[in-house]
Amino acid sequence: MAQGSGHEEQTFSEFYTEVKEIEKRDSVLTSKQQIDRLLRPGATYFNLNPFEVLQLDCDTPLEQIKKKYRSLSILVHPDKNPDNLERAQQAFEIISKAYKTLENEATRKKCLEVYEEAKDRTDMMIAEKKKKLKKEGKYDGVPEDDPVKYKHAIYVMVMKLFADIERRRQQLEVRDMEERKRKREAEIEEEEQRDLQKEWQKNFEESRQSRVNSWHTFQAGSSTSSSSSSASAAAAAAATATTVKSKKSKKAKYTSFNPPKIKPETR
């Protein structure tokens, strides 16, 4: 068991040395190579990890982070790459964003938490894989027992977690934009309603005198009509009274007639 452990340690040591050699080689890439690295196909996801952008381990001290940022920013600066100005500007902005993320203690801590979660998830995944193989009677080790593959599994998980964080951020941004749009549309509708109300009130006030004049005219017409009707009614009543009186007079005249007395005949 101790011999196997010693072999694993030796393998990991060799792997670590190889990784450091690769990092050392990559750290002296030319300006064009660094720009191509940062803008390569699929780099959008890789560049979500600021340690990946600056080619640093997650446990790199802040002073070393600053030094690496300075060297890379000078290397890809647009002023140093006049023949590749647009791509150099994009690469420079990517490096600057990564450094600002790691320079801030709070955001750097969040990035380190991603690494910790990636390691925990990877260990859990490996444990479940081993448990399943043992249950099936097929266990003979797993690929992640190899330190190189184990580190690669953590690396893949780190990229996945950073991608998940970015997707959630974009979703929240979309929802926030939709909410702001909805509120703005509601505000515009309220403003339109207020404008319509003001316009109606304005027209109402401007037409007030016209309505008053119309009412006065109507009132005056009603009074004249009422007087004429009263006069007509009085005249009709007077005519009716005269007619009745005339009839009564005639009746009285005929009622007072006395017929002559008939005298007896004399023979």
How far is it from the N-terminal to the C-terminal residue, by CA?
A: 194 Å
- Total number of strands: 0
Radius of gyration (CA) equals 54 Å
Described by strand count, sense and barrel closure, the largest sheet is:
none
Helix content: over 70%
Relative strand content: under 5%
CATH class of one domain: Mainly Alpha
Give the ordered list of helices and strands. HHHHHHHHH
Structural class: mainly alpha
Tally of separate helices: 9
What is the CATH topology assignment of one domain?
Helix Hairpins
What is the molecular shape? elongated
Q: Give the second-level CATH assignment, the architecture of one domain.
A: Orthogonal Bundle
Average pLDDT, rounded to a whole number, is 81
Protein name: J domain-containing protein
Pfam family, one: DnaJ
InterPro entries: DnaJ_domain (IPR001623), DNAJC8 (IPR042858), J_dom_sf (IPR036869)
